[in-house]
Write a structure and sequence with these properties.
CATH topology of the domain at 73-384: TIM Barrel
Largest sheet: 8 strands, parallel, barrel
Helix content: 40-55%
Radius of gyration: 23 Å
CATH architecture of the domain at 73-384: Alpha-Beta Barrel
Order of helices and strands: HHEEEHEHEHEHHEHHHEHEHEHHHHH
Number of strands: 10
Number of helices: 17
Strand order of the largest sheet: 3-4-5-6-7-8-9-10
Distance between the termini: 70 Å
């Protein structure tokens, strides 16, 4: 039997972009080539009307080996305002297949759980085995206080800290940007104390969150989101270095948070670019080996969700979840379909967590590591996004770092430009919102919630997340 392998492309001359374009123009029969086929991302990166070829740095992105039974952390966010309701939701989620919990916290108890007191946090997590169900914190105000409370709870329950996983979610730069205030340098000193405490007793906890998703929700482009993530990584690596922390340990103490939206291919490329950027930055600080691998938490984007016909959010969330899993996210949060209008009901929470199970156990998305590797489209988008983000990251560094870039308002201005450009594209029909700007349901069915999101009087936020889809249709 002949076992000879033949190269399928052997004997065929390589084709250039101009050759492909000539054939495409012939097929278009006089229609404008760029108007018909040409497309670019919000950052001006070509993604249509061109023939993609292998970029110089193409190849598989370094990711962790997947657990075939749990290919990513299935993380659900608790937004309930009282400990008993938060606990009921937590136990329901865990029994329904969720593997990680995120506590959204508010020291005033207006928008989410008030759990500064250790007894309140303990009550919210009653019956939760914290040694096998990682808990992550998400707070704007009182980040350090909440982190200390969680660490005290671990001590109260006498949990072995060596193997404990989870995250404290410390992000003082993001907190200042979200509130529209100048970062108090004392926040860094408090963060250093927390680094010493957490590393001594809980070495596997992530301490800092390099949050690019916050900017994306405010309207930032993909490259802007990655650049803010990169600047956050650099800032927190410096801070941990000042405590004497080993660079590899510092790199492992950072979790990245990025948004995943319904643009599947661009989201996949964004997550792949994030890994390259992370590895490049932390290696310059001296990290090596396993520490070069980014820990990425992808959250389905709130800005893509519609309040007008929330049922269509199921499609958007499914696409975003698929993109996050295919892009190699280590943990994924799928927002409830009602997120644009109010607190989720039990149905909304169940559907959100079931999307994880459908992707993992029926679609088998987690069985392949970096499935986009070798695809010229995805490799090109990954490379171009990484380059564009790196250029903006360098500009942020030239301006004195992320805190300084937010303090003088320059970065908020750049994000506002991207946001207005996107809203213009939606208004002019260049981008569609299914169920809102195209194919609206004339008689949409109502979706049950457990209450609207409370209005909170606060200073005008310099980087306030918005629901772009909801805003376009006139919803708050």
């Amino acid at each position: 039997m002949n076992q000879t392998l033949h190269a399928l492309a052997a004997g065929f001359p390589a084709k250039a972009d101009t050759d492909w374009r000539a054939l495409a123009e012939k097929a278009l029969r006089g229609a404008d080539f760029d108007a018909t086929l040409g497309r670019t991302t919000a950052d001006g990166i070509a993604r249509g009307g061109t023939m993609f070829t292998r970029p110089e740095s193409s190849g598989a992105v370094d990711t962790r080996d997947k657990d075939l039974f749990l290919p990513w952390g299935m993380r659900q966010t608790l937004v309930e305002a009282t400990p008993d309701k938060a606990n009921a939701a937590a136990l329901d989620d865990l029994m329904g297949g969720v593997s990680e919990l995120e506590l959204r916290l508010d020291p005033n108890g207006q928008t989410s759980l008030k759990a500064i007191d250790i007894d309140d946090m303990d009550a919210a997590l009653t019956g939760v085995d914290l040694s096998i169900a990682p808990v992550h914190l998400d707070a704007i105000l009182g980040q350090g206080t909440h982190a200390h409370t969680l660490l005290a709870l671990y001590a109260r329950r006498r949990i072995d800290g060596e193997g404990l996983k989870g995250g404290l979610g410390i992000n003082p730069i993001g907190r200042a940007a979200r509130q529209g205030v100048t970062l108090d340098p004392e926040c860094f000193n408090k963060a250093k104390d927390l680094v010493d405490l957490a590393q001594a007793a809980f070495p596997q906890l992530t301490i800092f969150r390099a949050d690019g998703a916050l900017a994306f929700e405010a309207g930032a482009s993909e490259a802007q989101e990655l650049a803010i993530m990169a600047a956050s990584i650099a800032a927190y690596m410096r801070l941990m270095g000042e405590t004497g922390m080993d660079a590899s340990a510092a790199a492992r103490a950072i979790e990245i948070r990025l948004s995943a939206d319904a643009d599947i291919h661009l989201t996949m490329a964004k997550l792949r670019a994030a890994r390259r950027i992370f590895a490049r930055i932390v290696s310059r600080f001296g990290a090596d080996g396993e520490a070069l691998r980014a820990d990425i938490h992808a959250v389905t984007a709130g800005r893509m969700l519609s309040a007008q016909d929330p049922w269509t959010n199921l499609i958007r969330n499914a696409c975003a979840g698929f993109a996050a899993a295919s892009g190699g996210a280590d943990a994924i949060t799928i927002r409830p379909l009602t997120d644009a209008i109010g607190r989720p009901s039990g149905l909304a929470r169940r559907v959100a967590r079931n999307l994880h199970i459908l992707l993992a156990e029926e679609s088998h998305i987690g069985k392949v590591t970096d499935p986009a590797a070798g695809s010229y489209l995805h490799e090109t988008l990954t490379e171009k996004l990484a380059q564009s983000a790196w250029a903006l990251f360098q500009e942020i560094e030239r301006r004195g770092g992320l805190a300084a870039a937010f303090a003088d308002g320059w970065l908020q201005g750049e994000i506002a430009k991207a946001r207005e450009a996107k809203l213009k594209r939606i208004a002019e029909g260049e981008e569609i919102i299914l169920g809102v700007t195209q194919y609206p349901d004339p008689d949409p069915r109502a979706v049950e919630t457990t209450g609207s999101w409370p209005h909170v009087d606060e200073p005008e936020a310099a980087l306030k997340p918005v629901f772009l889809a909801a805003q376009f249709e006139g919803a708050e």
